[in-house]
Amino acid sequence: MSAEKIIGDWKKKVFKPVYWLEGEEPFFIDTVIDHAEHHILSDSEAGFNLTVLYGRDTDWATVVNACMRYPMFAERQVVLLKEAQHMKEIDKLEHYITKPLSSTILVIAYKDKKVDGRTAFGKLVKKTEYFSFKKFYDNQLPEWVAGMVQQQGLTINAKAQALLIDHIGNDLSRLRNEIEKLTINLKGRKNITEDDIETFIGVSKEFNVFELQDAIAQKNLPKAIRIIQYFAANPKAGPIQMMLPALYSYFSKIYTVFGMDNRSEQALFPVFKNSFAVRTALGAINNYGYTGIEKILLLLHHYNLRSIGINDAATEDADLMKELVVKIMA
């Protein structure tokens, strides 16, 4: 079950007595906890019926005592146990979880880890409203961003989406905040473009890893050198430690395409998750072929080693990158 499903049930006034939220993806846990804290109860009800506890600062007895209180001037009370992974003797909540008070909603946030399912307590927890949120991976981001944008009643073009994801990575909270900021700044427009990403988030639409990928794919050496020179003048915009892994990941995906019978844009979309990246990949395949892509991967590996000081006498990052793209296109 997703965070959206839990919140959807709550909006319908469908509640369970105990919710256990765990896992390595804090965004979804925080989303559920935030809704429980601010939206299950009205402001007037929350004054008497909302208790927020933190695992570092509380103990199991305090949690149980809070849960055993009856609501005042409301149908239910809400008890939130945040950072539960830091609470000592959490397994002593077992008795309460076995027989919870129906008028209490206990929501437990157990971040960054999972309860041991082999223990009696772990088995009990999994009989509650149990949710384990797995780490969100990079290949899931395009679909998630598209969904978040759609929730705002907007669309986003492929290049803008790629720029946004590359700039922020898999920090879902920050991605949501930036999308909300874009929504405000669009002032009625419904489509997010790369110009918007540049204007409102501060990512250059001309000098970024995707444009470098495109330059290499097209064998456009002057463009590649201009981008590298921009990165040299703006080190935070494109450090070599970020560029090389990104290029290696991209060309590794292209390498796998040679094992596919169907190389249409539609067939390649699940691999690259972005129509802009697909078109660039098809250009690279036409310009380099199998042996050329293989050569690119070997060069990227070699220059990655040099960038961390292996077999290299402190060559400047920009010079390494220029040397790399020249050898790739030679």
Question: How are the SSEs ordered, and which strands pair?
Answer:
Elements: H1 3-11, E1 18-23, H2 26-38, H3 43-49, E2 50-54, H4 60-68, E3 77-82, H5 94-98, E4 104-111, H6 120-125, E5 129-133, H7 141-151, E6 155-156, H8 158-168, H9 172-186, E7 191-192, H10 194-201, H11 209-217, H12 221-233, H13 240-257, H14 265-272, H15 275-307, H16 317-329
Helix pairs in contact: 1-2, 8-10, 9-10, 11-12, 11-15, 12-16, 13-15, 14-15, 15-16
Organism: Limnovirga soli
Coiled coil: 165-192
Pfam families: DNA_pol3_delta
Describe this structure in words.
This is DNA polymerase III subunit delta. Its EC number is 2.7.7.7. Residues 19-127 form the DNA polymerase III delta N-terminal domain. Residues 165-192 form a coiled coil. InterPro entries: DNA_pol3_delta_N, DNA_polIII_delta, P-loop_NTPase. The protein is of the alpha/beta class and 330 residues long. It folds into 3 domains: 3-135, P-loop containing nucleotide triphosphate hydrolases (Rossmann fold, 3-Layer(aba) Sandwich); 139-201, Helicase, Ruva Protein, domain 3, CATH 1.10.8; 209-329, Zinc Finger, Delta Prime, domain 3. Helix content is 57%, strand content 10%. The protein has 16 helices and 7 strands. It has a 5-stranded parallel β-sheet, sandwiched between helices. It has a two-stranded parallel ribbon with strand order 6-7. Helix 4 (60-68) links the parallel strand 2 and strand 3 (77-82). Helix 1 (3-11) runs parallel beside helix 2 (26-38), helix 11 packs across helix 15 and helix 15 crosses helix 16. The chain is elongated. The relative contact order is 0.08.
